[in-house]
Amino acid sequence: MSPALCLAHPRPDAANEPDREACDPVIAAQLRTALRVISRGTPLLLRGETGAGKEVFARGVHAGSSAAGRAFIAINCAGLPEGLIESELFGYRGGAFTGADRGGRRGKILQANGGTLFLDEIGDMPLALQARLLRVLDERRVTPLGSEESIPVNFQLVSASHRELGALVEEGSFREDLYYRLNGVEIVLPPLRERADRRELIDRILAEEAGAPVLLTPAAEMLLMNHPWPGNLRQMRHVLRAAAALCDGNLVDVEHLPALRTTPFSAARARAQLPLAEAAADAEDRAALLDLITEQRWNLTRVAKMQGVSRNTLYRRMKRLGIELDGD
Ligand SMILES: Nc1ncnc2c1ncn2[C@@H]1O[C@H](COP(=O)(O)OP(=O)(O)OP(=O)(O)O)[C@@H](O)[C@H]1O
User: Fold this and answer.
1) From what superkingdom does this record's organism come (predicted)?
2) What's the predicted TM-score (pTM) here?
């Protein structure tokens, strides 16, 4: 999977080309910065909430850099037991330990030679390995386990963490010297809820998941656009994958977004807050408006305000949908 984003586009030699695809301006600027510094051999440290797209960003940096076309090697430091990370990263010589492949194994660092090494969840790297990684970065040489020979290596380094490494340094679980070594430039990716390209992302991910362009009803659009997305793009992709599977044709409505309907910004409110002209006068609209009115304890002034309409318009709509003013 390689989400296009705008990430692949702004190469250093194309800095003046307008983005061919809509992109959040903050991320576009961050990408330009990242490409400029990585081309000088400065490591990048990415921070951002879970699912905010740190790996996708790192892949975008790789694709836009002079190492594009070479290896992009990602390793998740949180996902491996301590013993395994060591051989994964540094490799081993044949017969280095019981169970080792006879031919030995080239570690990820050597695989990244000439390309980009992406160390995800670097904050979870055990202290002993932090010391070895620091040595590799300083010496630009790797010594596989069980070997006496060190091998020269050269790669672009991008690390990522959803936790603040500075805080881990204070806490004593992360080496300060490694922190400064990794943190050539720190980039804090914005969470999805703050991105200006949410609408484009929804369309693109939905089309990817459905295999064809898909439309949204205004209520579904409002629900998707106003959701806080604590799991960011990963969560959005899952929600849209489900929506693509649930909707029969090429139109997604709120009932195809079941995971969002129970959240604070509920489907009912999304529907009821729509400008009235857009809302179809059907039974679901009636239920949605009634939900909102009940939620607001029949304070119709407030309901009208939430909908951005006058009280009179609200009364007319209630009448059309058969909601009685003296409803209990
Ligand atoms: N720009 C994008 N366009 C489309 N999908 C995206 C984009 N960025 C991220 N995603 C989706 O979100 C998922 C999570 O992205 P990614 O792994 O880059 O996030 P992360 O910040 O590295 O997550 P974690 O903190 O859990 O490591 C991806 O698998 C992809 O499906």
Assistant:
1) Bacteria
2) 0.76
Residue 162 beta carbon below 6 angstroms from any ligand 1 atom? yes
C-alpha triplet 96, 111, 132: angle, nearest 5° = 60
17 by Cβ neighbours in 10 Å (0-12 / 13-18 / 19+) ranks as: exposed
Q: What type of residue is 73?
A: I
* Predicted interface score ipTM higher than 0.85: yes
223, 260 contact by CB (below 8 A): yes
Q: State the helix-helix crossing angle for 218-226 and 198-210, rounded to 10 degrees.
A: 120
Task: Give tens-digit pLDDT for 164-190.
Answer: 999 999 999 999 999 999 999 999 999
Question: Rounded to the nearest whole angstrom, what is the distance from the C-alpha of residue 52 to the centroid of ligand 1?
Answer: 6
Burial 292-306 (b: 16+ CB within 10 A, else e): bbebbeeeeeebbeb
Structure tokens at 167: 């805080």
Rounded Cα distance, 192 and 257, in Å: 18
Quick: pLDDT tens for 208-258.
999 999 999 999 999 999 999 999 999 999 999 999 999 988 899 999 998
**Among 265, 285, 267, CA closest to 276:** 285
Separation of 231 CA from ligand 1 center, angstroms?
A: 10
Residue 142: what residue type? V
Find out whether the beta carbon of 208 lies less than 6 Å from any atom of ligand 1.
no
Q: Which residues pair with 55 in a beta bridge?
A: none
